Amino acid sequence: xxxxxxxxxxxxxxxxxxxxxxxxxxxxxxxxxxxxxxxxxxxxxxxxxxxxxxxxxxxxxxxxxxxxxxxxxxxxxxxxxxxxxxxxxxxxxxxxxxxxxxxxxxxxxxxxxxxxxxxxxxxxxxxxxxxxxxxxxxxxxxxxxxxxxxxx
Length: 152
Hints:
The protein has one domain (2-151). The chain is of the alpha+beta class. It has helices at 2-53, 147-151, and strands at 67-72, 83-87, 92-96, 104-107, 114-119, 121-122, 125-132, 139-144. Strand 3 (92-96) and strand 4 form a beta hairpin. Helices cover 38% and strands 28% of the residues. It contains two helices and eight strands; from the N terminus they run αββββββββα. Strands 1-7-8-5 form a four-stranded mixed β-sheet. Pfam families: DUF7266 (PF23928). InterPro entries: DUF7266.
């Protein structure tokens, strides 16, 4: 009886140590690495969609009307909300996430007639609105959760 009790205690102790080791080191590290890769892909997708939303300049004139484009991104990364914001004017975008290992920035390849990028693109469904700049010499890209929010 004592031998069986000691045997059961050793098995329970082993399971406890293995479970603690997994949850303390291996699993959180795996979640962070996976989430960082999802963040990188999300940032690349958002950048690609922003670049595709800008119409080309035709005959020296820029867009005279407003265009809207729906963007579908993952709702959360690592079970937490995030957003994509412009960084350094109209040349880069940045992914901002509460977890320190998730984030980054990406350079955009935009035509010269893009004057500015404003707003923020939340995780999930969002909109990219391209409209003529007030001076009429370029376009402004506005990021937002709704097309009306992005256009204001």
